[in-house]
Amino acid sequence: MFDRYQAGEQAILVHVDFPDDSSREDLQEFKMLVSSAGVSELTVVSGKRNTPHPKYFVGSGKAQEIADAVALYDANVILFNHSLSPSQEKHIEALCQCRVVDRTTLILDIFAQRARTHEGKLQVELAQLRHISSRLIRGWTHLERQKGGIGLRGPGETQLETDRRLLRERMNNILKRLDKVEKQRQQGRRSRTRAEIPTISLVGYTNAGKSTLFNRLTDSDVYAADQLFATLDPTLRKIEVEDVGRVILADTVGFIRHLPHDLVAAFKATLTETREAELLLHVVDISDERRSENIDQVTDVLTEIEAHEVPQLMICNKIDNLHDVEPRIDRDETGMPIRVWLSAQANIGIDLFFQALAERLGRQIVRHSLKIPPAAGKLRGMLYQLNCIADEHFDEQGNCLVDVKLPAREWNRLIKQDKAGLERFIEN
């Protein structure tokens, strides 16, 4: 159903500058997207407009220029650095006699190429189906079933209606399967919560170095490359952090400007790992001239998936690409680490990262010594259910002396419930 790019395809790139920041795209980033898709760039047709043309997106003169470039270079695809409406795609294809692909479709295709796990493939297919559902009109008029005359009377359903029905059925089927995957993820998160294992999630703009840092921290071999969307499928690994213990580290898909909403919706199950993390490690390519814009874009996506309130530790990566920048930890006025400067590729500053991580997570861990009398055995059972007892012994009077270690939020929840009068048993 979907066109997949094959290595060696020849493309004409189209880029339009708009005065409005919300509509403006980055040409260099678009070229990286094209390269990541395995497409060869022939030439770039660029121009300026205040607003998109309703028929061709670009002006009629620029559209003819694109058609001439297609004929001159013998291109077999036109790639737009913008999102096009179905009618604009149709009109440009009719004029240029060449396949037209917009920015959203290009990103979806890159995701389709990179998906490896069953869940990732389902999520990409769902996003593609949602995108293509608005582009079915007039695509199959030659297969129209509602025709008159003897031998031509069909079941009363047009090919368009058939396609829409099949799309709906397939989308519903995928949603049910993704819902099953989400329940499995929730079960895993509940198990980690019971075991009091905090989860931290790597987030950041695509190609910021998240997977390289992930591999450096976990001694894994997750695919990492200098290209956009090298990582698609989420990966979880355990790491040991001093004074904290085991921590789950999650590597996630990178964000990008104007990330298609279909993708955000399709990857809701995956992004839940980000939303429910104890701490977000916001990885930034500090050597990128557009780092401020990239940070803003990541913040926008985090807001969209309701993860903007999760505490963040910024990782200023790739300092080896800059001159006179040493690894360091930046702190706020209270002394809490807020930024770590390092290079995952060059293995510089990793020790500072673990130091900052221990401080951030350690502040969320509370330790208490409790003296629980025999009559409060129910409280001891609750602590065992939380798996937070670090040490336990009994005195001569039969009191249970326990050392507990648990996240601050769990301790506060116990205090709020206060069913067993927990605070009166605190020894320290």
TrEMBL record:
Keywords: Cytoplasm, GTP-binding, Magnesium, Metal-binding, Nucleotide-binding. Residues 198-365 form the Hflx-type G domain. It holds the Pfam family GTP-bdg_N. One of its GO terms (molecular function) is ribosome binding. It is found in: Cytoplasm. InterPro entries: EFG_III/V, G_HFLX_dom, GTP-bd, GTP-bd_M, GTPase_HflX, GTPase_HflX_N, GTPase_HflX_N_sf, P-loop_NTPase. GTP binds at residues 204-211, 229-233, 251-254, 317-320, 343-345. It comes from the Bacteria. Its cofactor is Mg(2+). Its main location: cytoplasm. Monomer. Associates with the 50S ribosomal subunit. Belongs to the TRAFAC class OBG-HflX-like GTPase superfamily. HflX GTPase family. GTPase that associates with the 50S ribosomal subunit and may have a role during protein synthesis or ribosome biogenesis. HAMAP family: GTPase_HflX (MF_00900). This is GTPase HflX. It comes from Thalassomonas actiniarum.
